[in-house]
Amino acid sequence: MNPIIIENLYKTYGKVTAVNGVNLEVRPSEIFGLIGPDGAGKTTIIRIIVSLLNPDRGQVLFKGTPIAGNMSFVRTQVGYMPQRFSLYQDLTVEENLDFFGDLFNVPKNIQVNRKNNLYEFSRLGPFKSRRAGALSGGMKQKLALSCMLMHEPDVIVLDEPTFGVDPVSRSEFWEILKSLAKKGASILVTTAYMDEAALCDRVAFIFNGRILGMDSPDKLVSQIRDSIYLVNSDAPHLLFDRVSKSGKFKGCELFGDGVHLTDSDEAGIETIKDILNTMAVSYHKIKKIDPGLEDVFLKLMNENSL
Amino acid sequence: MQRIFYLMKKEFKQILREKLFISLIFLAPLGQIIILGFAITTDVRNLNLAVVDADHSSMSARLIESLSATESFNLVCILDSEKEALREMDNGKIKLAVVIPKQFERDLKNGRQPQVQAIIDGVDGNSAGIAMAYIGQISRKLQQEWMQKTGVSNALNQDLRLVEIETRMWYNPSLESVNNIVPGIIAVLVMMITAFLTGMTIVREKENGTLEQLMVTPITSMELMLGKVLPLVIVGFILFNVGILGAGIVFGLWMKGNLFSLYLMAIVFMLSTLGLGIFASTVSQTQQQAMFIAWFFMIVALLLSGFFIPIENMPDWVQALTYLNPVRYFMVIIREIYLKGTELLYLWKEALAMLAFGLATIISAAVRFQKRMS
Q: What is the band of B374 on the pLDDT scale with cuts at 50, 70, 90?
């Protein structure tokens, strides 16, 4: 049985529809990524799953049990890490771990073992008597994760756990998540970072409260059959502006590294160069690239807004 | 149930670790007792006084001596005429002038009643009234002294005593306002700590996001509330005792009544203040908001409690309002037990009213808290 099943979920705040008919399932021992920009509805879905919010319609089955009316079941079973790392800044690393271990009624002797394991894999051991407030962002994040692992939940829900953390700590964090999944934990994680989406077993793209697409990252990427070209320019905004207004390409998106053009007619690189030249835009490099998840997301977004 | 204990353990760790809390809990109250105890006083001290002595007799000298011997008055000058005295008063140099008429001594000895006039600057009406009373006391004392000396018949003397209306302050014989203020301050201390800190520590969890984390644990909202509130009951209780000790050591004011009756009443009183704190936490997003809300209610409750302003002096409709104020009852109870040693039995009305308000406040706050949590 899939540990998290979301069926036809709706949630509105006043006139704003935060979640608009979402269906998804998290399978046993997979890392499921809920990917989308800020305000897409990720946090609302997460908070409904951990019983902090009631949906307007639809239901969530947690380990086969509907959440409505079984709040305490969910709250004792789930491992939840909210958007901001919530630990007690004025307590030490060890005191934070003890406190959460106590709250979940973990026997003291088991707590000792678990703490040692957690120190080992989070590498927080040397800092156990340091106050949480004095830890770096990456260490705080690992401590928050460790606190929530004190009761060894097999279903873990993380809301943007790597937000505002440096790249090295982020990749370390994902290593930890992978090892947890390998040990059998089912993990639902939200993120706005596309590079993290690629690390999930399956992802769902969410935008304006709607799921745009859901599959493994490879399969999602393989949806894109057209060739994608990357154009570098000193004035990428100008280039993007002119090219997208011209309507000569099926897709034209502004990325951090330049402008991505979708060549749906298979016109080839020389033709593209000619087209760009006729528009009198300057660029210094153009090359064919493999599409990434972000290309998929933008494509799905554009298709949906049509 | 065990989780309440774990949460309390954590709370105490945090309280002991936060320097701000420690000073808020122990230094502020002591400072308050000392500063307020000395500062809030309705006693008249060092009122500038001028005497116009037209008699220049030994008896007028004795009167001047008595006037200047009290701490209440500060003899500034001896003048020759009433006019001069009025000028000094207009200039603000003196607040009070006593005019001793010519032939004061002779009239007294002959059994005629000489009229000593007191002119008091009435800008501060309270002090004026009290100064007047002091002068009356002094002159009555002298009168008796002289009656015996001059040998005007003992019968007359006795008469005088029979007729004389003597106001005697029983439970605060020296009429010292400290006796009235200090128990009040102890009540305020308990109120501040429990109402403020309850609101603040709960909202702090909200601010730090730890509340959201706590809620997704097996802890129930009842356990959460008790775990947050009980440590503050203990802190409030310690503080209460610090206040009692402070009052005794600094002002020599020890409780006349039963300590345990007062403890019991303090706990009943805390129901209201904790309720206020919990309520403040349910409507606030930040610690400042919680503090402000608690502050607002506290000030109103204090002003309407009879702490500094006697309730009898208030307009009727305000007096009626004070019956809705639990602090009012606690002020009566703490002063009665402290100053008179009144048995709890005689305070049942106040105790019952306080209990009713306390239960109503804390239950409705708790219900609100529970709703917010789920």
A: low
pTM of full prediction above 0.95: no
φ, ψ dihedrals at B238, nearest 5°: -60, -45
Q: Where are the alpha helices (DSSP H) in A106-253?
A: 108-122, 137-149, 167-182, 194-197, 217-222, 236-246
DSSP B104: H
pLDDT score at B154: 53
Mean pLDDT of chain B: 82
Cβ distance of B218 and A104 shorter than 8 Å: yes
Chain B partners of A51 at a C-beta cutoff of 8 Å? 216
Interchain pair B6, A84: CB under 8 A: no
Q: Is the pLDDT of residue B19 over 50?
A: yes
Q: Is B220 on the interface with A (CB under 8 A)?
A: yes
Give all domains of chain A, ordered by start, each with its CATH number.
4-216 (3.40.50.300), 227-290 (3.30.70)
Protein fold of B47-159: abc type-2 transporter like fold (3.40.1710)
**pLDDT for position B165:** 39
Q: Where are the domains of chain B?
A: 2-40+174-373, 47-159
Chain A contact set for B208 (CB, 8 A) = 84, 86, 88-89
B210·A87 Cβ contact <8 A? yes
Interface of A with B (CB under 8 A): 50-52, 71-72, 74-76, 78, 80-91, 95, 99-100, 102-105, 147-148
Task: Kindly state whether B213 is in contact with chain A, defined as any CB-CB distance less than 8 angstroms.
Answer: yes
Structure tokens at A216: 């493994």
pLDDT at B156: 52
Tokens representing B35 are 């500063």
